[in-house]
Amino acid sequence: MRSRKAVSNIVATMLIFSIMIISMGVLYNQIAPTLLGFDAETKTVNQEFVFSSIANTMQDLIISSRDSQRKVSIVSNGAVYDIDDGHLLQYTFSDNNGVFNTTNANIGGFYATVEGSFQKRSSSTYLNRVDGEASLIHTNESVTASNYIAKVDFDYQFAIYSLYFKSRLEITNTGVNQYDVTLIIIKMDFIRSPDGVSSLDFPHSLGEWDLRLKRSTTIITSSIHLITGPLVVGHSVDGQANSNLSYAALAGSTINLKIITVPILFTI
């Protein structure tokens, strides 16, 4: 039989282990949120840099000649990238006589799915200066607003990062009661596979690779309209009505309405 001293030593040892386990549990509870936050922060900073590089390159291509090309170096381990048709936007132009122009456009979207340990959130976190998507039309009156959307949606074991451009509306006075109203749609485009699949995956097994961007042919349509009452520009996103823009100063004016679509082709 064990002596009382031996039993006491065993009990003391078990007590020490119990205290250590409890302490480790307390320590884990203290540092786990920090680790989760660190994981989210480091991976988000990486994707924000990737998206910023793509957005800056696209903006450079927008003002370049047709067939101009650029490349963006993607450095990101473990991310799965893809592009698809993105949001469907519908634009309407109307006055007191009703709608006189309707334009539909898929603006395309570039996405990154990243595995990790995150804290789930119920709403999107925006990575650039845009704090929401009340309007996907960027006007020349809001010069401080970013003209693209970069955001992330966190789940527990993965995060989905999204990038797409807002359309731009420019109104220019060209004479007495005469205006150019120009809607510029920046479209992320891609070559569909032979089976018609409407998305394209990029190499996620490589830690570093080049994304190639090419400015495709610009599509321009124009029409002349005499505006009675305020000009109202409305748009819906995936069938859901979004905020309208109203321009009372254009009442009684003649406008040259131009719809300009600038596709940027994504390839590898």
Keywords:
268 residues, alpha+beta, six-stranded antiparallel beta sheet
Structural class by helix and strand composition? alpha+beta
Query: What is the string of SSEs from the N terminus onward?
Result: HEEEEEEEEEEEEEEEEEE
Please give the largest β-sheet: 7 strands, mixed
Number of E-state strands: 18
Helix content: 10-25%
Low-confidence stretches: 19-35
User: Judging from the principal axes of the Cα atoms, what is the shape?
Assistant: globular
Q: In DSSP terms, counting alpha (H) and pi (I) runs of 4 or more, how many helices?
A: 1
User: How much is the radius of gyration in Å?
Assistant: 27 Å
**Strand percent estimate:** over 45%
Chain-averaged pLDDT: 83
N→C terminal distance: 76 Å
Protein described:
22% of the residues lie in helices and 46% in strands. The chain has one helix at 4-62, and strands spanning 69-75, 79-84, 88-95, 98-106, 109-115, 125-126, 137-139, 148-154, 158-165, 167-175, 178-189, 199-202, 208-215, 219-226, 231-237, 240-241, 245-247, 254-267. The strands form three sheets. Strands 1, 7, 10, 11, 13, 14 and 18 form a seven-stranded mixed beta sheet that branches. A six-stranded antiparallel beta sheet has the order 6-8-9-5-2-12, covered by helices on one side. Strands 3, 4, 15, 16 and 17 form a five-stranded antiparallel beta sheet that branches. Mean pLDDT is 83; it is low at 19-35. The protein is α+β, with helices and mostly antiparallel strands. It has one helix and 18 strands.
